[in-house]
Amino acid sequence: MKSPWMWHGVYGLVMLALVGAIYGASQTVDYTWRWDRVPDYILAYEDADIRSTITGVVEITDGRVEVIGTQDAAAIERYNDLDSLLVEDGDYIFDGDVVGTRSGWRIGPLAWGLVTTLQLSILALLFALPIGLLAGLGRVSTNPAARNLAATYVELIRGTPLLVQIFIFYFFIGTVLSLSRMTAGVAALAIFTGAYIAEIVRAGIESIPKGQMEAARSLGMSYPQAMRHVILPQALRRTLPPMAGQLINLIKDSSLVSVIAITDLTKAGREVVNSTFSPFEVWFTVAAMYLALTAGLSLLIRRLELKLARADG
């Protein structure tokens, strides 16, 4: 058997060739690359305007700035940590006027978009798991009504595009129930993901030998008890890898909610492109942020699988 290091070397050469091909292709494009703009849209050190929230007169004493309200004498605003002042002692300012600036680290729109993507994905997953579990149990139920309802739900959701479902949730169901954009987006993602989780749960349950159920029933367990204590623990452990894949798909699918004006990572990238006219750099960065997120989740799931495997052993 040849040394595995040789094949690692082959892999390295292939990746170097791929990177070289991409770099060579980028040089043939008539485009000015400006990667220096991108970091400011993730994390930047900049000045932020500090605005007054009352109308009043400015008083400056030993570097301490106060705005004394003229409409309400008890209304006083104090500013002790401004890096620069844009007003002078005795100035009369209105609500919303800039008093000064304060320097510090600011999270950029791409980072905020990533946070929104995480919020969407986590919330959708929290709702999708119980939906998928119930539908999966319905798929293997002996009750014809439960089985048919679960099958209808799964086939209906899996047979229509997620983008169409998002539009239906936002424009129809959202209008009827007065749902916000965020709620409609989370609901659409949860219902969509729940259908796929249902099939994963069904496959996991059916992979357990029927003798397990028969043995549990022979010990005096009811069907629900046998399913809860014997079948589901084994089935859910077997379904961990496909569940992890579905979570990764959910994170990528969440990019579609940008069509209903939710500022997730994809919409934030589009807004940055519109303001910088640097589409290549921004979209490569957005792709890298998605990749870092999904790769990190894959690594965590892999470690969890290994931990469970050691526990079984």
What does this structure look like?
By secondary structure, the protein is an alpha+beta fold. It has two domains: 46-106, Beta Barrel (OB fold (Dihydrolipoamide Acetyltransferase, E2P)), CATH 2.40.50; 110-312, MetI-like (MetI-like fold, Orthogonal Bundle), CATH 1.10.3720. The chain is 63% helix and 12% strand. It has ten helices and seven strands. The chain has helices at 4-27, 109-139, 144-158, 162-177, 181-206, 210-218, 223-238, 240-253, 265-276, 279-312; strands spanning 43-51, 56-61, 64-69, 76-79, 84-85, 92-93, 98-107. A four-stranded antiparallel beta sheet has the order 4-3-2-6, with no helix packed on it. The chain has a three-stranded antiparallel beta sheet with strand order 1-7-5. The model has no long low-confidence stretch (mean pLDDT 88).
